[in-house]
């Protein structure tokens, strides 16, 4: 570690006021944006969750906690459970597929890495809905996948692949896998090879090196990737609708339906808060673990 | 405010904010039944402009341009996928910017009850005289006080005769399908039509609000769910064409889309199950917030012209409640799409759907329970 001026040292020729102005200018747009488009709507959701639904929708200005009780009814808990399970399985699969992929990319010659990373994000250049519809074409009973399997004589009748929870997981995994690969790649790429060499010099086998050095040091990246995959999977309602055929309901569908179909904004707000609560818990866990396994400072 | 202490100013500001948010929160709860606006029959329509919201493909594409060419009123069309979607938009508070909305009768009834609709000025729509008398007496809005019917029809089964190998005639053909059809059926997803097959199969009203009856409906629909390919409101006819589905719950007009297919259309058939079905009407309503009410009425009157409404029927393949328009359809066209020949009397044997009022949330909850199984 080199010794230098600490963060508190005042640099000569830079008055404090200018420092403040700089901060305001740098933080202002982002903070303003988040305040208007995140905090204010959040306040509305909290306020709505305390009101009651009007006869034709809208809200009656009566404070009531009934909707919080309703959210605990078995049918809604089951939807939440299904959503957590589907998002969890998607995240786990993304981790299992994403880790080796990121590892392989990080080991590629430098000029190939960029090409492969572009290939990873390439699907994002096509509209999300179009890509999801492509899965419908691919998986349906008259589609190419069933056609090939039947032509090869592997199956007699088309498999019911589409409109199942499995199809939902496949669609979510496809949509969000790049969000797992990218942070993992960064974490693996930043690994100091000398640390692994040192472990090996001290007599650790490959597996031991992976378990005691590589894995803990890439864990924060894996957790960020997991959050990136889990959060949008949990709230997604388009994929369950298109690939689940309306037969698999996730919490996102339920919330969307409360606002757009049932016109029950108070209950929709309660469900939205429920999801936010789940995510806050996850983020707290993530930051705790990340702090514990934070890579050693390099400088 | 000059001279007041600062803290008072601040609390005044906070109170202002709070009351503003209460106003926003309370939007849509006011049930104001103010009287009809006074409209000017001689208004210059070229100074007005219309925004209409309709289902996609539910109107000839050239209709807005033709109307503008004749009256000078520019027309913008937006689409909604379901009644629920447009009603959510219209009840969200404030001016939706929409002048004329196309909604099913029971939803027009709910919108009218909230005071969101301009009463129809019959003097501005002389072509109302073209409607079948039956179309003016539908339960959701007798006398067409708030709505003008645009198309009407019923719900039934649409199937590929070559794939089913038999002719279904009961809602149970959908609810407890034969082995060769199981897994190749779809049901409508929007609440009222999701419930309809089970309600009719069990001999209940399509407007029932009896919890015990709805419990039986729920159980039957939950049992049927495992045999369904999917719930589908919008693409069931293309699933029939591709052969992905062989029997679907369908609105009569949309079954015609499958019948119109040059390839397999000849083996697509339509039946109203023997247990009975509904009578739905899709209507045109004018929003109270519209600043272009004269043009809105002119558009409705234009659509009700026999030659225009007949052209609409040819395009959307739905029955229109307009007598001279239906009589103008060619025998060849009617022969190709037999369900268009249902008479108003036959249609009226179906049960007219009305708004459920306080029982609405019960239907939503049951729909959720079925979907979450």
Fold and architecture overview:
The complex is a heterodimer of chains A (299) and B (373). With 299 residues, chain A is an all-alpha fold. Helix content of chain A is 72%, strand content 1%. Chain A has a two-stranded antiparallel sheet with strand order 1-2. Chain B folds into two domains: 46-153 and 280-342, D-Maltodextrin-Binding Protein, domain 2; 155-276 and 355-371, D-Maltodextrin-Binding Protein, domain 2. Chain B has 16 helices and eleven strands. In chain B, the strands form two sheets. In chain B, strands 1, 2, 3, 4, 10 and 11 form a six-stranded mixed β-sheet that branches. A five-stranded mixed β-sheet of chain B has the order 7-6-8-5-9. In chain B, strand 1 (50-55), helix 2 (63-71) and strand 2 form a beta-alpha-beta unit. Mean pLDDT of chain B is 89; it is low at 1-33. Classes of the chains: A mainly alpha (299), B alpha/beta (373). Chains A and B meet through helix 1, strand 2, helix 3 and helix 11 of A and helix 1, helix 3, strand 7 and helix 16 of B.
CATH fold type of chain A: MetI-like fold
Structural class of chain A: mainly alpha
Q: Give the strand content of chain B.
A: 15-25%
Secondary-structure element series of chain A: HEEHHHHHHHHHHH
* Fraction of residues in H or I helices of chain B: 25-40%
Q: Please, what is the oligomeric state?
A: heterodimer
Rg over CA atoms of chain A: 24 Å
The count of strands of chain B amounts to 11
Shape of chain B: globular
- Strand order of the biggest β-sheet of chain A: 1-2
CATH class label of chain A: Mainly Alpha
